[in-house]
């Protein structure tokens, strides 16, 4: 792909420019065809740009605004507060064609609401879904959606998530006939809510989809499927449980420099020795490396980073957006949906 531009809400997230600027510096060093539109408080951003020798970079345009959306305010108030905010200006740059995608670590509800308000949705998609790549224990990835954009969904919307997830996996994971599963509390036919059972039967009839049935949450990282479909409430809980477990287990193996307890250090050493292979695999599941969820179902690439992301994690959110822009994901999903007579 040729040159492209990414709009970034520099103020979004718990740490703002202290995290976003070093992440952007790394992204520019890795992608020579990348340009950036930065939106945020010039007084906070400029010293950091200078620190990373980017103050006069031709690859960067800085748009000053002192307005930002608070992270913990209700959705309706966030939308009212959004005028001239760094998040809204970044999304407007995408809407106006000045950038091909946007990354923000700001208020999740505001980002989703503003994106749906400003960015044109794909035809026949009622609601976009937060979508991410979930790492598995064999080093491959699984697509999972929805991860929090829609707390309640209809049967038809779950089928639309299956459609989008199928196409997303084809492009992002280079798969020909991705395996699709519904997240449920069991794999038996009679398990789960009436809605899950109904959608299960509907997907079984789809000859165009490789639907293989239910999957349980303890198998999320087992690579038993390529696409995991769920509502946003269930998906968000499952993802955060997975991330928390991975972080906590990894922390058990890490040696603290201040720890002088010989017995404890010996235990940690033995754990690393015995479970080294599994420890290496757990590092691959480290949430920092898989930060970023895209709002799939819109005509442009919009990526949400964790608010508490560090610079390394925010870099991966940027890289995730770049992969989708270079892969022309929205257009390829549009083409795939338009070729399917079942959803016209």
UniProtKB/TrEMBL annotation:
GO terms for cellular component: cytoplasm. One of its GO terms (molecular function) is phosphate:acyl-[acyl carrier protein] acyltransferase activity. One of its GO terms (biological process) is fatty acid biosynthetic process. It catalyses: a fatty acyl-[ACP] + phosphate = an acyl phosphate + holo-[ACP]. The keyword Translocase does not apply. It is found in: Cytoplasm. InterPro entries: FA_synthesis, Phospholipid_synth_PlsX-like. Pathway: Lipid metabolism; phospholipid metabolism. Keywords: Acyltransferase, Cytoplasm, Lipid biosynthesis, Lipid metabolism, Phospholipid biosynthesis, Phospholipid metabolism, Transferase. Its EC number is 2.3.1.274. It comes from the Bacteria. It is an enzyme of class 2 (transferase). Catalyzes the reversible formation of acyl-phosphate (acyl-PO(4)) from acyl-[acyl-carrier-protein] (acyl-ACP). This enzyme utilizes acyl-ACP as fatty acyl donor, but not acyl-CoA. PANTHER family: FATTY ACID/PHOSPHOLIPID SYNTHESIS PROTEIN PLSX (PTHR30100), PHOSPHATE ACYLTRANSFERASE (PTHR30100:SF1). Belongs to the PlsX family. Homodimer. Probably interacts with PlsY. This is Phosphate acyltransferase. It comes from Mannheimia bovis. The gene is plsX.
């Amino acid at each position: 792909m040729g040159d492209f531009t990414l709009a970034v809400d520099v103020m979004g997230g718990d740490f703002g420019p202290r995290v976003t600027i070093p992440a952007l510096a790394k992204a520019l060093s890795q992608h020579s065809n990348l340009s950036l539109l930065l939106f945020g408080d010039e007084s906070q951003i400029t010293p950091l740009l200078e620190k990373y020798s980017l103050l006069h970079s031709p690859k960067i345009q800085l748009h000053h605004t002192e307005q930002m959306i608070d992270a913990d305010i209700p959705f309706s108030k966030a939308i009212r507060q959004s005028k001239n905010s760094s998040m809204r200006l970044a999304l407007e740059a995408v809407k106006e064609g000045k950038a091909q995608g946007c990354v923000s670590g700001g208020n999740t509800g505001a980002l989703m609401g503003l994106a749906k308000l400003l960015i044109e949705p794909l035809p026949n998609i009622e609601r976009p879904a937060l979508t991410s790549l979930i790492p598995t224990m064999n080093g491959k990835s699984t697509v999972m959606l929805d991860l929090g954009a829609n707390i309640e969904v209809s049967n038809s919307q779950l089928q639309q998530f299956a459609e989008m997830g199928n196409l997303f996996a084809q492009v992002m994971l280079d798969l020909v006939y991705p395996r699709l599963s519904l997240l449920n509390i069991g794999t038996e036919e009679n398990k789960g809510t009436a809605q899950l059972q109904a959608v299960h039967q509907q997907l079984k009839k789809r000859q165009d989809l490789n639907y293989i049935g239910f999957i349980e949450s303890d198998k999320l990282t087992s690579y038993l499927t390529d696409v995991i479909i769920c509502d946003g409430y269930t998906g968000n809980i499952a993802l955060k449980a997975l991330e928390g477990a991975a972080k906590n287990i990894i922390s058990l193996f890490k040696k603290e420099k201040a720890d002088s307890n010989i017995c404890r250090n010996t235990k940690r050493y033995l754990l690393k020795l015995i479970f080294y292979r599994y420890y290496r695999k757990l590092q691959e599941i480290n949430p920092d490396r898989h930060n970023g969820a895209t709002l799939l179902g819109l005509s442009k690439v919009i990526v949400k980073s964790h608010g508490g992301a560090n610079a390394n994690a925010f870099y991966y959110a940027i890289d995730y957006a770049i992969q989708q822009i270079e892969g022309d994901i929205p257009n390829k999903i549009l083409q795939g949906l338009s070729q399917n007579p079942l959803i016209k």
